[in-house]
Structures are given as structure tokens and as C-alpha cells.
Write a structure and sequence with these properties.
Protein name: M48 family metallopeptidase
InterPro entries: UTP_pyrophosphatase-like, YgjP-like_metallopeptidase
Number of strands: 3
Structural class: alpha+beta
Distance between the termini: 30 Å
Pfam family, one: YgjP-like
Length: about 180
């Protein structure tokens, strides 16, 4: 790969063509992804790595899937009351999924219901991407901040978590690129 620092035109083009999903990644990684996208090979890369969509289409199936992952990895955590697909989550606003706690006073007690909402875009996404988002939101049941303990928990539940997160960003970028097959 050609270093961007030696070629000011490439660096200028890169500055004019930001990759919103990869803003925090090093310039050389962004340059390689930009080349894949510009050559029309990004979709092929994703299709090779993640050929099959998942079969979790409705909220009931999603709840069962989330609950099974929670039972496998976080048995001692607080109960989960709801897991649904949410069409209102804005992917560009960095909300791929949310976790909320709704507290109510019931008699003399405070009752908390926890729910996970997953962006509707993941209804049609490859199975590993749905797993990555669910793992991320489940980790928030134990760790509220994105700190080392949080990411350690994510990689405990999904050993390929960081690669999946990166590839998910590529998937979202590919989905948003004009003239690409939406899938």
C-alpha cells in the first residue's frame, strides 16, 4: 500500500471523502477500505465473509435469541424484559442498538424493566452482525461505560467481537454507498 503522506493528492482526496463509520481508525486502514469501496470490491469482500443472513425476523424470535445469549454468558445479571427491532433507531447517529432501564414505583417498591432495542437494519443483516450488536447491548447490563471491562466482556461473549465490529462498519458503509446492491 502506498503511504498517504508521500502523495498529497491522495491525502487531500481522503480528507474530502470522509468515512463516517471509520472516523477513529488509522489513515492507512481508511485508505485501504476506500480503495476497496472505490474499486467496487467491498460488497464482494463482505459477501465472501458473511454469505448468510440470519432467520430472526420478528421481535419474539429476537427476544428468544437475546435471552439465550444472556443465559449462556450472563446468568447472574438482571432480568431482561424486552428485546425488539426498532425502526426509529438512526444508524448514522451511532445508535445500532440501545439498552434502557425503565423504573416505576409499584406500591412501596421501585421496579425496573430492562429492554434492548436493535436497529431494524439488522433484520436482514448477516447473523454475526446481529450477534455482535446483541453482545454489545448485553454487555451494557453489567458495564455501563465503554471501558476495558466492557470490551473484555464483549470478547468473552463473542471472541471475534472486534473484527465483527470493524466488518459491521464496512457493511453499513457499503449499504449507504450509492449504486450498491442493498442487502
Amino acid at each position: 500500500m502506498i503511504p498517504a503522506a508521500r502523495y498529497p493528492l491522495r491525502r487531500y482526496r481522503a480528507a474530502m471523502d470522509p468515512l463516517p463509520y471509520l472516523a477513529g481508525y488509522p489513515a492507512d486502514v481508511q485508505m485501504r477500505v476506500r480503495a476497496l469501496r472505490d474499486d467496487g470490491r467491498l460488497g464482494d469482500y463482505l459477501e465472501r465473509r458473511y454469505p448468510d443472513p440470519h432467520a430472526i425476523r420478528n421481535d419474539r424470535q429476537l427476544y428468544d435469541y437475546v435471552q439465550a445469549l444472556k443465559d449462556r454468558h450472563l446468568r447472574q445479571s438482571t432480568p431482561l424484559h424486552k428485546a425488539i427491532y426498532d425502526g426509529k433507531l438512526q444508524v448514522l447517529k451511532h445508535a445500532l442498538g440501545t439498552h434502557t432501564t425503565i423504573s416505576r414505583v409499584q406500591g412501596g417498591r421501585l421496579k425496573a424493566n430492562r429492554e434492548i432495542r436493535i436497529a431494524s437494519v439488522f433484520r436482514e443483516a448477516p447473523a454475526p452482525f446481529l450477534e455482535m450488536i446483541v453482545v454489545h447491548e448485553l454487555a451494557h447490563l453489567k458495564e455501563s461505560d465503554h471501558n476495558r471491562a466492557f470490551y473484555n466482556l464483549c470478547t468473552h461473549m463473542s471472541p471475534d467481537y472486534h473484527q465483527l465490529e470493524f466488518d459491521l462498519r464496512l457493511y453499513l458503509m457499503h449499504r449507504d454507498t450509492p449504486n450498491t446492491m442493498q442487502g
